[in-house]
Specification:
about 170 residues, 4 helices
Length: about 170
């Protein structure tokens, strides 16, 4: 499938106008870092769910168990949607409208997260079968742990400052 050639592609060394859009474009250099973030985010979410389920059960019984599981689960899933949407959007790097697709996917994921959080907050408000304090503590702690993991991954990543793609 051939796509239209941008005007600057004809003057770019190494880019043949007939193969633009069909040539081999490597994934962005940040992709391994994003996939590492998804992997560690899943591990942190599962560990937080287990930890807060135990803490919730020991402190408040079954309502604490439900609050801990749901709070840690919501916190982990909402943050994984962000990293996952960026990693998924990078699959369209070969498209001539990559930036538009990328921003559409990432901003769409943000809107979905916002709506999901509001709906979850409204549905879980004043539920007698869960402890809202444990839910809040688990949610905030899971978000903070995920942010710390993301900062560590980005700080240790070796991403070049220049783009080597033609």
């Amino acid at each position: 499938m051939s796509t239209s050639v941008p005007p600057d592609a004809q003057n770019t060394p190494g880019v043949e106008p007939t193969t633009y859009g069909d040539g081999e474009y490597p994934m962005p250099s940040s992709q391994p870092m994003l996939l590492r973030g998804v992997r560690w985010g899943i591990i942190a979410t599962v560990a937080s769910m287990v930890l807060f389920a135990v803490i919730g059960y020991l402190t408040r019984g079954s309502v604490g168990l439900a609050g801990g599981l749901i709070g840690a689960g919501i916190g982990g899933v909402l943050l994984l949607i962000t990293v996952g949407s960026i990693a998924f959007a990078n699959r369209f790097v070969r498209s001539p409208v990559y930036l538009q697709i990328f921003m559409g996917i990432v901003m769409g994921a943000f809107v979905v997260k916002l709506i999901a959080f509001v709906v979850a907050a409204l549905l879980l408000r004043d539920q007698p079968w869960l402890d809202p304090q444990i839910l809040f503590i688990a949610l905030v702690t899971t978000v903070l742990v995920s942010i710390i993991i993301d900062v560590i991954i980005v700080a240790k990543a070796r991403v070049p400052y220049v783009d080597l793609t033609p």
